[in-house]
Amino acid sequence: MYTQSFNVPDTSDDTKSAGLKAVARPPTEAETALQARFDAKVDADEKVEPKDWMPEAYRKTLVRQISQHAHSEIVGMLPEGNWISRAPSLKRKAILIAKVQDEGGHGLYLYSAAETLGTSRDQMLDALHSGKAKYSSIFNYPTLNWADVGVVGWLVDGAAIMNQIPLCRCSYGPYARAMIRVCKEESFHQRQGYEALLVMMRGTAEQRAMVQDAVNRFWWKCLAMFGPPDNDSPHSAQGMRWGIKRISNDDLRQKFIDATVPQAKVLGVTLPDPDLRWNEERQHYDHGAIDWDEFWATVNGNGPCNKERLATRVKAHNDGQWVRDAAMAHARKQQQRTLQEAA
Ligand SMILES: [Fe+2]
Ligand SMILES: [Fe+2]
After folding, report:
1. Cα 39 to ligand 1 centre (Å)
2. Strand-pair category, 277-279 with 284-286
3. Residue 192 Cα, ligand 1 centroid: separation in angstroms?
4. What gap in Å lies between CA 277 and CA 295, rounded to an integer?
5. Can you say how many angstroms the Cα of residue 196 is from the centroid of all Cα atoms in its chain?
């Protein structure tokens, strides 16, 4: 998964000061030529590769976005990982293990893509573990019952797909290529969630009530995953110019709502928005107002599970130290053996 805290500043963000430095000195002729070549490449929809020249602000924006995306994938493992030992059947357990493993894999592709921009895995993990780096806010809410696991698949992964498909056409090659595989796996995540909910909706009245309750709790938070409204997203235009962002926050949110309303009907749940109705003139669904104060409070560390998620993540990293040490020792041994054989 996921999105969309991606374009919120990290606490340690220095993009602004870098920008100020850049205007302090007029660019040299060589820099102007490099910039023109970069602009032409982006305009022609060609990919920018790690060894190509790129503007410093483009590099910094990508490092921030890709690392926030990677953090979201691995923190996203936690709310569902919590349910692996409590899945209601062997089949559901196997599916959930596969999904959570996929999310770990997504994190790894994305950390690797960010590393090609000259930042190390350790730096990115330090920023996450010290609380400086952001990740998608949706994971700071609890998964209270089994229906939540289905709703996370259907709505959270569904919103992630909507956000991530345009990233397959991102101007930065390694990010775009990582997203192609990620999106294929996300579509399995979305479908397994929806199917689990369909089964529950064919069950008892209590099971149906659980699904409705989970939808009620997650719906608005999923709409907020697409990020602030376009007129409150000052960096969006630059992201579009660079070919990083292809579709605006509001347009993506609208696409998600339009796709999800018919799915909710088939499922037999009500989306908790009294203002949600088809607008014949616009040929889209209208919707009610999103609570952005709650969104920003959670992004800024005050959601119900922020502290717990970070503590679990840091503990998992520390508990895994022996694995990293063993892997390094094994690699050193292999290298020595190869050298001895060559001698
Ligand atoms: Fe993912
Ligand atoms: Fe996913």
Report:
1. 31
2. antiparallel
3. 14
4. 24
5. 23
Of 9-23, 121-135, 296-310, the one with minimum mean pLDDT is 9-23
Region of 283 (left: φ > 0; alpha: ψ -120 to 50; beta: rest) is left
**CA dist list (Å): 63 to 115, 175, 267:** 8, 10, 39
Q: How many Å lie between the centroid of ligand 2 and the Cα of residue 188? A: 8
Give 16-61 pLDDT, tens digit per residue: 444 444 556 788 888 899 999 999 999 999 999 999 999 999 999 9
Q: pTM score, two decimals?
A: 0.89
HSE-up of residue 238 (Cα within 13 Å, Cβ side): 13
Confidence of residue 342 (pLDDT cuts 50, 70, 90): confident
In one letter, which amino acid is 259?
A
- CA of 46 from ligand 2 middle (Å) equals 28
Structure-block tokens of residue 327: 């892997």
Report the run of H or E that residue 281 belongs to, with start and end.
none
HSE value, Cβ hemisphere, 13 Å, CA-based, for 130: 10
